[in-house]
Structures are given as C-alpha cells and as structure tokens.
Design brief:
Elements lengths: L1 E5 L6 H10 L3 E6 L2 H9 L3 E4 L5 H9 L3 E4 L9 H19 L5 E7 L26 H7 L6 E7 L2 E3 L6 H12 L2 E4 L5 E6 H14 L5 E4 L2 E5 H12 L3 E4 L4 H5 L2 H5 L8 H7 L8 H5 L8
Parallel strand pairs: 1-2, 1-4, 2-3, 4-5, 5-6, 6-10, 7-9, 8-12
Antiparallel strand pairs: 9-11
Helix pairs in contact: 1-7, 3-4, 6-8
Bound molecules: NADP nicotinamide-adenine-dinucleotide phosphate (NAP).
NADP nicotinamide-adenine-dinucleotide phosphate (NAP) binds next to strand 2, strand 5 and strand 7.
Amino acid sequence: MRIFVTGASGWIGTPAVDQLLRSGHDVVALARSEASAAALRAEGVSVRRGELDDLDSLRSGAEDSDAVVHLANKHDFARPAVSNAAERAAVETFGEALAGSDRPFVLASGVLGSFGRPSTEHDPSPFHGPDAPRGGAENRALDFLARGVKVVIVRFAPSVHGDGDYGLVPMLVELARTKGLSGYVGDGSGRWPAVHRLDAGRVVALGVDGAEAGQVLHAIAEEGVPTRSIAEAIGRGLGVPVGPIAPADAMAHFGWLGGLFGLDVVSSSALTQKALGWTPSGPTLLDDLSGPAYFRL
Ligand SMILES: NC(=O)c1ccc[n+]([C@@H]2O[C@H](COP(=O)([O-])OP(=O)(O)OC[C@H]3O[C@@H](n4cnc5c(N)ncnc54)[C@H](OP(=O)(O)O)[C@@H]3O)[C@@H](O)[C@H]2O)c1
C-alpha cells in the first residue's frame, strides 16, 4: 500500500515507518522542515512538504494514498488548546478525505486514566468534543466508521521509552537535575504504563495491516510501573536524593507534569497482543533508566 504518514520523523514515527517499509509498503511522509524531509528521503520515504495547519496538504496526502497514519501532534503543552484544535481539525480532514473508501486511518492516542482496574482496549474514550483532551480526537475519528473509513486507534503508554527519548521521562530527569531531588507524588504508588519505542512502532505497522475497522490497540508493554520506582531510578542515575512530594505541592514542584505524574494509570494490552500476534520484546522502562542514556547532558 501507499501510506501517508504524519509525524513520520518523530519518536514513534521513525520506527513505525521503518516497519511499514520492511512490510513492503510505500510511505509518503508529511515533513515541515527540510531537515526532516532529507532524513526521511534517506530512509527511502517520499516526502510531501507541509504542516498540520495546512489542511489542503493533509487532504491531498490522504486522497493520494491507500491508508493514513496520523502521528504528528503539536505537543504545545503550555497551550493544549492549540494542539487539540489542530488535532481535531486534522482528524476531520482525514475522515472527510477517506469517507466512503474503506481505507485504513490509524490515529495516535493516549491510554486512559484509572478505573480501579487496568483499562483495556474495550474501554471507550470518555473524551468528546473540541474542549476535551486531545480535542476528543479519538471519538471524532470513530465517527467516520459509519462513513466508510477503516478507523484504527493506537493508544500509547505515557512513556514510550528508549535511547534518545525526549518525552515525559526525560522531563522528569531534567526536573530532578534542576531541583537536586528526584520526587514522586504522595507515597509513589501511582503507576505509569510503558512501552519501548521499537515495540510501539511495530503496533502502528501491524495496525495498518492487521487491525479491524473500529479496533482500539494498546501499545503497552508494562501495565503500570510504580512512579516511586521511576523516581528512584532517576535518583540513582543522577546521584540525587529521592523523596516524596505532597499531592498538594505536585504542581508547584513538577509544573503541569505534576498532574500526570500523580496519576495511577494502569492499562492492559492483552487484547492487542492476541489480535495482532504482537509480543513486546524491548527493554523495560527501568532497564532503560539503569543505563546512561537518560542522564547524558
Ligand atoms: N512519545 C510518547 O511517549 C507518547 C505517549 C502517548 C501518546 N503519544 C502520541 O503519539 C504520537 C506520536 O508521538 P511522538 O512522541 O512520536 O511525537 P514527536 O516525536 O514529538 O513527533 C513529532 C512529529 O510530529 C511532526 N510535527 C509536529 N508538529 C507538526 C506540525 N505543526 N506540522 C506537521 N508536523 C508536525 C514532526 O515533524 P517534523 O519532523 O517535520 O518537525 C515530527 O515528525 C503523538 O500523537 C503523541 O501525542 C506519544
């Protein structure tokens, strides 16, 4: 298939594209900079220069392809409304472009919060409407099932880790370095799911080829790594003390990340593993945090 991929040069996009190419697909990537375009071309990917706000470019990219994989996100954490509006607009543009074609539309999302049990692929996203987290994009995309689009959702763990990570865990490392303390919220019993980057990339590629319309996939290898263990590993790596931060002080200490690091999120990928024949094989988050990669300046 000829697959249009946004975010192809990103942390998850790079291994996902690698897998798609190995599976024999042609990849056309959206790239907003010449540097990203050059890196993608070097991997054998065709490039369409453009940006998420250029909806005409997204539309024509989708119309010219047999499938769309949407991984790009503005990740404007200081102004989430900006990222969320772009995400929703992109999803609506792709949905309209693919309507009536039965072509796959694979959308990146995030795992859901806590339910007093591990969340599963069968738990619907509670986020609806443009003001919801991620602009309610998951449910908006699923609306297009009824209009003949083969929508597949991939929910990623909050830590997609590996050498070169620039996601949430490196932010915790930098906070601990700056403050001289690796903190955890409360008693640190809150948990975060995790997956290695290469395993996450494989779920995306398998989602294009092997998932059913409307299927939700969980790119999760570890259901819940205790946040206290994450903080302890960071403390060891940096050689700084480890200690509790009272929940009331979490936002002051961690900034916006305090709201996330204080959560207890546990999520299963049993259904995904069975459906796709996917077995995560990468190192664990704590394995990765036991090496030097996360602590280089
Ligand atoms: N990484 C995680 O731990 C994690 C966890 C949960 C969910 N997710 C979700 O998974 C998806 C992929 O995440 P990621 O970590 O791979 O993201 P990332 O590394 O931040 O990738 C950013 C990618 O998006 C593209 N991009 C950013 N802003 C753009 C814009 N305005 N217009 C066009 N392209 C733009 C970048 O393209 P250029 O190279 O052209 O700049 C780059 O390819 C995202 O939806 C993310 O929210 C990730």
